[in-house]
Amino acid sequence: MQDVIVPGSTIGILGSGQLGRMLALAARPLGYRIHVFSPEQNTPAGQVANVEVCAAYDDLDAVRAFARGVDVVTYEFENVPAATAVACQEFAPLHPGPQALHMAQNRLREKTFFAANGLPTVPFTAVQSLADLHNGIVEIGCPAVLKTAVSGYDGKGQIKIMHPDEAAAAWLSTGQVDCILEGWVAFERELSVVAARGRDGRFAHYGVIENSHANHILDVSKAPANLAPAVAAQAVEMVQTVMEALDVVGVLCVEFFLTGGSQLLLNEMAPRPHNSGHLTIEACVTSQFEQQCRAVCGLPLGDTRYRQPAAMANLLGDLWFSQRKGAKKQSGQSEEGRGGPDWTAVLRLPHIKVHLYGKREARNGRKMGHLTALADSVEEAEKLVREARALLGK
Ligand code: AMP
To answer: CA 31 to CA 85: how far, in whole Å?
Structure first.
């Protein structure tokens, strides 16, 4: 058993986006120092870290030097190269371990793992050639979705196939790399469960969160999801199965489709805090980020109870370019992430909390921040957060 990484120690984070930033912001009050490693400078996480190391992930000397300077390493994105993870482990514990990373990095491996553990998924098959794709379409039927096995996110590297005639074009559009073909599910709802597992195997979760996506990007999350208790319990149990099978120490999120009122299908997992769990910052006694800090440091897991129902709405870069009613078009509003929407419109609202990630450049589809609303009911929280976001632009 490793020693507890006590407050005052240094947590190393691979990756420097908003998840790293919110982890840093949660770990600092507990007295931890934060070192961030990524190929960029002046990053969302780096801005709030004690040390920001700027080097390529495959610069293993730099990775080793970074790991030597910290007491534990975690990450905020799952595409950390395997060699980088191994180099870190020479000098510091890495949580979650390489097994979870390996599984989450490849959609085919991930779904095969789910299925091998008796967890239900959409129908899927491996595609490594156009012939495989034709056979897959015969097996699975249309509509189906072809996804690159690695490095796809927010709908990138995905193409929906409505008719077998579209196979060749779909295969070309993926760049003819290893893919997974999935049956297209007419799901009723999208759900997620964020959970944590400690070094001692203790498990804590935030129940089921309900998500809606726009253009394949998470748009709004709300919790607790209005779901039959038995289905919610089943979702949580499935996530515990995943975390135990991979011996995860840290936070992990599983995304589900709900069909037929009560059938859960696992879509994907991420061995880190998740966008759908951002509402835990205000809504829960312990946020998903503080929980990640506690888990990877070997501290007792925190209380995950909700203080109030909550909803979260993402703020995409599009808002920086959209015209507000009656507002004059501003020039240069994307630079350094300044300008953009009129924040005072939402800062006035008593039930809304504003989070901005300090990204220097706004781009369409880029996650720049989020809003959270707390209310007496989930429906009210969702209404408040959507109304608040509408004040910022389209
Ligand atoms: P993913 O990158 O797999 O999370 O996909 C992004 C979004 O695309 C999901 O949240 C769903 O809204 C949609 N999607 C992905 N796969 C499927 C599928 N097999 N059937 C229906 N919708 C899907």
So the answer is: 25
Is the C-beta atom of 268 inside 6 A of ligand 1? yes
Query: Cα of 69 to ligand 1 centre, how many Å?
Result: 39
Indicate whether residue 282 lines ligand 1 (CB < 6 A).
no
In the chain, what are the domains? 10-94 (3.40.50.20), 123-183 (3.30.1490.20), 187-392 (3.30.470.20)
Mutate to test the pocket of ligand 1, among 181, 188, 258, 267 (most ligand atoms within 8 A of CB): 267
pLDDT in tens, the chain (394 residues): 668 999 999 999 999 999 999 999 999 999 999 999 999 999 999 999 999 999 999 999 999 999 999 999 999 999 999 999 999 999 999 999 999 999 999 999 999 999 999 999 999 999 999 999 999 999 999 999 999 999 766 667 789 999 999 999 999 999 999 999 999 999 999 999 999 999 999 999 999 999 999 998 999 999 999 999 999 999 999 999 999 999 999 999 999 999 998 999 999 999 999 999 999 999 999 999 999 999 999 999 999 999 999 999 999 999 998 755 445 444 444 554 566 899 999 999 999 999 999 999 999 999 999 999 999 999 999 999 999 999 998 7
Residue 146 CB–ligand 1 contact under 6 Å: no
Centroid of ligand 1 to alpha carbon of 292 (angstroms): 26
Q: How far apart are CA 179 and CA 125, in angstroms?
A: 9
Nearest CA to ligand 1 atom 11: 216
**For residues 389 and 386, what is the distance between their CA atoms, to the nearest angstrom?**
5
Cβ 84 vs Cβ 58: under 8 Å: yes
Query: What is residue 259's three-state secondary structure?
Result: strand
CA angle 107, 109, 113 (to 5 degrees): 115
